[in-house]
Amino acid sequence: MSHSSRQAPALRVFLPPAHARHDPDSVIGSGAAARPYFERPTRIDALLRAVTAAGLQAEAPRDHGLAPIEALHEEGYLRFLASAYDAWRAEPGFASDPVVRPTAFAVRPLHRKPSSVVGLAGWYLAGHGAPLLQHSWSAAVASAHAAVEAADTVLAGARQAYALTRPPGHHAHADLAGGFCFLNNAAIAAQRLRDGGVARVGLLDIDVHHGNGTQAIFYEREDVHVVSVHGDPAGLYPFYAGYADETGAAAGAGRNLNLPLPPGATDKAWLDAVERGLEALRRPGLPDVLVLSLGFDAQAGDPTANLAVTAEGFRGAGRRIADLGLPTVIIQEGGYLIEKLEANLTAFLQGFLSARA
Ligand SMILES: [Zn+2]
Predict the structure, then answer these.
(1) Which stretches make up the Histone deacetylase domain (predicted)?
(2) Do the domain assignments include residue 28?
(3) pLDDT above 70: residue 29
(4) Rounded to the nearest whole angstrom, what is the distance from the C-alpha of residue 19 to the centroid of ligand 1?
């Protein structure tokens, strides 16, 4: 690769420029009783340093409109996300409240969909981890567009592309936000690939939290095979899904694999699970394209999780995933120990790109 500077970059990177305007911690993270909102704009700054250090350049995605998002998410949910902030501020007594936060949630026995924005907030937002601010919707749409652009880049013949998506996506269902996620970027990319003519998509999720939204979206589908390596949800978000006995249903039976790991799992156990996941994607025959939900929150000390993976683990994962030999759309998910993000992405890219050279 002596003339690499004159060739197309080994990896095109797409960064949604609007992401930083979605910053819940700036409005809800203060006060003695407040819990910090870990999904912050500075995460992207750290990841971007690794991109630059790898000799890559981030590009803004084009505006792809709402069609690729509507291909997957429910219409009423999208209307809510787009309009809730203004409707909330118009509610009596809420004119100065800068955050759409449910006062009640539509939990198990409560299943009647209301019409008011205050009621809908608890219908469409699954927890306090998905507060809507003035610019959350535009940030989520831009993030999804980065995923679409990465999928289109692979559809056009590139071997790999990376969407530096923020807010992340894998906890978002077709009609439910949660866990820092509003639009499911990885699922939108997978659907974009399908609509672009890819017959079979493999989706590997190595974020430490189970990708419950992704699982739900594809649970009864045969065309997108979902594999997730994550911390045991018995003690970790998203708590209510991600168990090993969830294996898909209907046409998707046997096409969903969960590989939960106990607290404290280190590089070896985590990489063994990644390897098992990749092995499952090889059977009964390789998918045509891989979508990778890439999180760095399996890192030891991440404030939202409980595994003990290091940069060497992410390097090994990059190498193993590259060895699958598939065109790959990489979608950024979590990773909240910000001081480790640059090293973790650097190690992942070194492992991944060196195995592709
Ligand atoms: Zn996560």
Answers:
(1) 39-350
(2) yes
(3) no
(4) 18
Distance 91 CA to ligand 1 centre (A): 33
Distance 218 CA to ligand 1 centre (A): 19
88 domain-assigned: no
256 three-class SS: strand
Of residues 36 and 156, more confidence is placed in 156
- Residue 171 designated active-site: yes
Cα–ligand 1 centroid distance for 134 (angstroms): 24
What is the rounded average pLDDT of the residues 147-174? Answer: 98
Which position has the higher pLDDT, 32 or 154?
Answer: 154
pLDDT digits (tens, 9 = 90+) for 112-145: 999 999 999 999 999 989 999 999 999 999 999 9
Residue 312 lies in a domain: yes
The CATH number for 180's domain is 3.40.800.20
Boundaries of domain holding 243: 9-63+138-356
Residues with CB in 5 Å of ion ligand 1: 207, 209, 295, 297, 334
Q: Which is catalytic among the residues 171, 209, 225, 230?
A: 171
Measured in Å, residue 291 CA sits from the centre of ligand 1 at 16
DSSP 150-206: HHHHHHTT-SEEEE--SS--TT-BTTBBBTTBSS-HHHHHHHHHHHTT-S-EEEEE-
Domain count within the chain: 1
Cα–ligand 1 centroid distance for 1 (angstroms):
35
Sheet hosting strand 256-261, strand order edge to edge: 58-59, 12-14, 160-163, 328-332, 289-294, 201-205, 224-231, 256-261
Distance (Å, whole) CA 277 – CA 116: 43
Residue 257 in domain = yes
94-108, 205-219, 270-284, range with the lowest pLDDT: 94-108
Mean pLDDT of 14-26: 92
Residue 88 has pLDDT above 50, yes or no: yes
Q: If residue 258 lies in a helix (H) or strand (E), which one and from where to where?
A: strand 256-261
